[in-house]
Structure formats: structure tokens, C-alpha cells
Automatic annotation (TrEMBL):
Keywords: Membrane, Transmembrane, Transmembrane helix
Pfam families in the cross-refs: DUF1304 (PF06993)
Superkingdom, natural source: Bacteria
Transmembrane segments: 54-72, 79-101, 107-126
Protein name: DUF1304 domain-containing protein
Amino acid sequence: MVIAAVIFAGLAALLHVYIFTMESLTWTTPRTRAVFGTTAEEAETTKLMALNQGFYNLFLAIVSIVGIIAILQGHTGIGAALIFAGVGSMLAAAVVLLASAPDKARAAVTQGAFPLVAVVLLVIALI
């Protein structure tokens, strides 16, 4: 069960690295604007905010990856704590998105599905 949790935490981390890429590196490109539903003007205006938000996503991914590495090296407690911090924050952000913008439910589910599965599997593995 721990391995399954680690796999889903890894998928969540990879997704958030991708989100980082879109928000921090390609925010004003037509493809990324289509994903987020923004115009060229909106993207230009919100570029600095998106850059900052993208780095939040990257840092959550890094925390999760360090937790995965710790678990794989036999440091289950430390690794689990880091994974819970990383993917738990991802999951919480998805819940906030869903609660604050119900029209963004698809994005919230996309953002939160892997973290939710990782949290559930890790809890089951640890009890």
C-alpha cells in the first residue's frame, strides 16, 4: 500500500510541476491561455501573480518528491510527513478552488484527484 501511495504522490508531484511550467514559464502563450481561459490581455496583466502561484506548485511538488525519496530510503515517518504536507496542501488547494469557483470543478478535480488518492492510500498503509 505504501508503494501505491508513493506512486500517486509522484503523479501528483509531476502534475504540479506541469502546472508550474504553465503558470511560471508559458503563462502568456496561446496554449496555456486556452487551458486557463484567459485572454492575451488578462495573461499579461496577471503574469507576475501566475509566476508566483506556479512556484507554490513547484515547491509542493518538491516537498512531495523529497518525501517519496525518504520513504524509498526507509525513513517512513519523515517521508510520510513530507508527503502529507505536499499532497495534503495540493488537496486543500483543490478544495478551496472548488468551493470558491464551482465553475472550475473540472480543474479542481484534476488538481486534487492524485493527492486525494495518495493521502487515502498512505493513511491506510500507516494504520
